[in-house]
Specification:
The protein is α/β, with parallel strands linked by helices and 622 residues long. The chain is 62% helix and 6% strand. The chain has 24 helices and five strands. The chain has helices spanning 28-35, 37-41, 46-54, 58-62, 65-89, 96-103, 106-138, 146-162, 165-191, 218-228, 237-240, 249-277, 288-297, 301-316, 319-334, 352-369, 373-376, 382-402, 407-465, 490-502, 516-532, 549-562, 588-592, 598-609, and strands at 478-484, 505-512, 538-542, 566-576, 613-620.
């Protein structure tokens, strides 16, 4: 098993120093574009979620749309203020995971991390399917191909993020500006209208308003509040990705967080005001945002601009997960809860393995759901509210320990937020449990268990390696280098020369099988070897079975047993092809298809059955 080892809490080798690659990091503006798409796009379904719940109480119930939205906006303000403090207190990112790990214990931190991982993955699947659903609503002929379209959008977003988070931000600035600008134009124009400009969109569609409702109860309002809180998903993404910002990271991330809260809050409240102003009623098959665009702007080009902007932003809002999750995975890997490979960065400050892992799992969810949004939505938002609640409780403890100026007010603010998000968590989980929410409830402990298992494995590895302890001083041992050969060539000469520079004694070995053809080849090799006389003995390894790696591994074990104080190294010579016929380049894995993979077979057998050092010598053909 190949293991990347590091001190617990240390950044594995391969990461760039924190002061390099600033041009590949985010400013406040590009950070807003890269990490807020999830939250921004939520205005397309947040107000609608409120209206659909309140519609069960009839027209009287819809009158509570604005009060419920104001309560959500108040919670948004609490969350923004809290996460602004989280950014300052935990500049290495991680959001609720970092808060919980520090102030509530490692196990609670893992619950927060698992909830964020699930939410980020589900966000990608929901965002892509919702965007494609908007597209297929406009072009019904594409509906049978929705899964292929979903996977194509996922490949596009993944490809952009593999080029770097700054490149992703640049690519998504224009769609974000167009969407936000269009929504604000819709709100401003609508505020100056006393009646809807058009109702063409809703015409002919059945209303979902209840006719025999008796009243509005506290439970209904609570459910509407919890459903509308889906609009708050994505608020935590900036706090999770603070290391992705340019210096001064904390200030830029805080500015982006405040801007996100201000823009999102204004859009939510503005749309809710218009819902009340136009006495809008939800209808089947038409989104609330589409009805508002129709009522404010009329059924013209402005209406279609908003529809297409919504469609594009919903599809691209998956980028929030690609910006936040890889950083969270890096922190988990740094703390030995995930394989260390997730902590490595590519050239453009990209946690490539995190991006690819998110893409693969999201693709599996898309295939599982068949590209259907309704299959995924019941599971969405539960995880993020668990994270919200844990972060708020952790920040209360943070202020109690810090006890700086005004700590009581800050603790009270976070305590209120913890109560509100805790209630929302319970209500959302209970109301969506039978619709698919149970899967999140089951996956949370399983994911935490996986984190713990990885951590224990690294603990055992660290104990055996003596990490954290001063090791014995290095000492020189006698070295024997074993070189597998099958013929004489420049590769053989190069391998023996390299082996002579590595060890005190060099032995060439060749495997012989009982077939007459193999024996003839061996006799020819031994005659040529005696004529060449390289000063290295050629050892014949006879094997009745037609295998290559096992006889060499058995010989290595025999040498080790006979000479226990000797370090055995197996040097495996291999050719590295450079070009194919007609001057066509053929490198890497494609070029290696031309060769018989003897080196890989030998290396696998020796690694599996012995403790010998394996050295693979590449001879480049040119």
């Amino acid at each position: 098993m190949s293991v990347l080892t590091a001190e617990p809490g240390a950044v594995p080798a391969g990461e760039e120093p924190p002061d390099t690659g600033e041009r590949h990091r985010l400013t406040a503006v590009t950070g807003l574009a890269a990490l807020s798409l999830d939250a921004m796009a939520s205005v397309a379904y947040g107000p609608e979620a409120i209206v659909l719940v309140l519609a069960a109480a009839g027209a009287h119930g819809l009158g509570f749309t604005l009060p419920v939205t104001l309560a959500i906006a108040a919670l948004l303000a609490v969350l923004v203020a809290s996460y602004r403090q989280v950014i300052a207190a935990f500049p290495d990112g991680g959001g609720s995971y970092a808060v919980a790990r520090t102030h509530l214990g490692a196990r609670t931190g893992l619950v927060a991390a698992a909830s964020l991982v699930l939410d980020y993955v589900l966000n990608v699947a929901v965002a892509v399917t919702a965007g494609v659903a908007a597209l297929t609503s406009a072009f019904p002929a594409l509906y049978p191909h929705r899964l292929v379209l979903c996977l194509a959008v996922l490949v596009l977003v993944t490809g952009v993020n593999l080029r770097g988070i700054v490149e992703a931000a640049k690519a998504f600035i224009v769609p974000t500006v167009v969407f936000v600008g269009s929504v604000f134009v819709l709100i401003v124009v609508g505020l100056f209208r006393s009646s809807p400009a058009s109702t063409v969109t809703a015409a002919g569609h059945a209303s979902v308003l209840a006719d025999n409702a008796s009243g509005v109860g506290a439970l209904l309002l609570l459910k509407a509040f919890a459903s509308g809180c889906a609009a708050l998903t994505g608020v935590e993404a900036i706090a999770n990705a603070v290391p992705s910002f340019r210096v001064p990271r904390v200030r830029r991330a805080q500015h982006a967080e405040v801007a996100l809260g201000a823009v999102l809050g204004a859009m939510l409240v503005g749309l809710s005001v218009l819902i009340s102003r136009f006495h809008l009623q939800p209808v089947a098959g038409v989104t609330v945002l589409a009805q508002l665009a129709d009522a404010s702007l009329g059924h013209n080009w402005g209406f279609y601009v908003i529809q297409f902007a919504t469609m594009i932003l919903l599809a691209l809002s998956a980028n929030t997960s690609f910006g936040g999750l890889p950083v969270l995975l890096k922190l988990l890997a740094r703390d030995n809860y995930l394989p260390h490979v997730f902590a490595l960065k590519a050239d453009r400050q990209v946690h490539r393995h995190g991006v690819l892992a998110l893409a693969v799992v999201s693709a599996a969810l898309l295939v599982f759901s068949g590209g259907d949004t309704n299959t995924l939505v019941p599971m969405f938002a539960i995880g993020v509210f668990v994270g919200f609640t844990v972060a708020q409780v952790g920040m209360v403890r943070h202020w109690r320990l810090q006890r700086g100026a005004g700590w009581r007010g800050r603790a009270l603010l976070n305590g209120l937020g913890a109560v509100l998000t805790g209630v929302a968590t319970v209500v959302v989980t209970a109301s969506k449990f039978t619709e698919g929410g149970w899967l999140v409830v089951v996956m949370l402990p399983l994911l935490v268990g996986a984190f713990v298992a990885v951590h224990r494995a690294y603990g055992r590895i660290g104990e055996r390696l003596g990490l954290g302890r001063i090791p014995d001083p290095p000492h020189r041992e006698r070295s024997v280098v074993i070189v597998p050969v099958s013929s004489l060539s420049r590769l053989t000469s190069r391998a023996l020369s390299a082996a002579a520079s590595l060890g005190d004694e060099v032995r060439a070995v060749t495997v012989c099988h009982p077939d007459p053809e193999d024996r003839a080849q061996l006799d020819a090799l031994e005659r040529a070897w005696a004529e060449w006389d390289p000063g290295v003995p050629l050892v014949r390894l006879c094997c009745e079975r037609r295998t290559l790696g096992r006889p060499i591994a058995a010989y290595v074990r025999a040498v080790t047993a006979a000479e226990p104080a000797t370090q055995v190294t197996v040097l495996i010579p291999e050719t590295e092809p450079e070009r194919l016929w007609l001057g066509v380049p053929l490198r890497g894995a494609w070029g290696r298809l031309l060769h018989n993979q003897r080196g890989a077979v030998v290396a696998h057998a020796v690694r599996k059955e012995t403790d010998a050092v394996i050295c693979r010598l590449r001879f480049r053909l040119s």
